[in-house]
Amino acid sequence: MTDADIQTFIDRWVRSGGSERANYQSFLIELCGLLGVDPPEPSVDDPTQDAYVFEKAIIFDNRD
């Protein structure tokens, strides 16, 4: 990762304005690429296998 890579990333995303919800997955995938780490995996039908995904399912136990 070079200073130019970082600046290119910043310049690309500074224009996104208030569209955080619309752009967050693209932003995070590109950030992972910039940092040299794996992006999140696709979700599967087995929640126990979804350790590193976007929007992990949460099961609520409302025993009230």
What does this structure look like?
With 64 residues, this protein is an all-alpha fold. It has helices spanning 3-14, 20-35. The chain is elongated, with a radius of gyration of 16 Å. The mean pLDDT is 88.
Give a topology summary:
Elements: H1 3-14, H2 20-35
Helix pairs in contact: 1-2
Low-confidence stretches: none
Q: What structural class do the secondary elements suggest?
A: mainly alpha
> What level of helicity do the residues show?
40-55%
- Number of helical regions: 2
Strand residues, percent: under 5%
Overview in brief:
The chain contains two helices and no strands. It has 64 residues and is an all-alpha fold.
What are the salient characteristics of this protein?
mainly alpha
